[in-house]
Hints:
single chain; mainly alpha; 6 helices; 0% strand; elongated
Amino acid sequence: MVAAVRRVMSHDSGPFWQFVKYGVIGVLSTLVQTAVFYVLASTCLGCLAPDDVAVRLLGLPAAEVSDAVRAFRFAVATGIGFVVANVFCWLMNRAFVFRPGKFSWYVELAMFFGTATVATLVALGLSSALIRWCGLMTTIAVALEVVVSFLVNFFVRKFFIFKG
């Protein structure tokens, strides 16, 4: 049993287990980003509106600020969560999924962040605009940001980083 777990957790686990580990790390990274976001959104940045589902269901504190201020603070909280989550994701992928060493660690990290940054900026721009101009609920904007970011990440990596 221990040997089987070691084999699955190694870099040589095969494509199926690499894909599974990549997916699990992606989910964990999303949870890290979301947790950081909500800690900031409900404390020092205060960007949850009183009618936000996270305020109603989780009892998080709301902030009485304009939609423009809320949109800016949403972007800041998302940016901080993005950095924390992507460092976590990169480290976990290096440790459990992909064999590092094709590039120097700083080039590898830059490429990893570059792809994720493009995806997040597209998603963040859309979400922030919908908060600011349509009054979209912050929690719905977070969910939209995750979905749009995932889609952009997938297509950028598939068609521009990995050929085919």
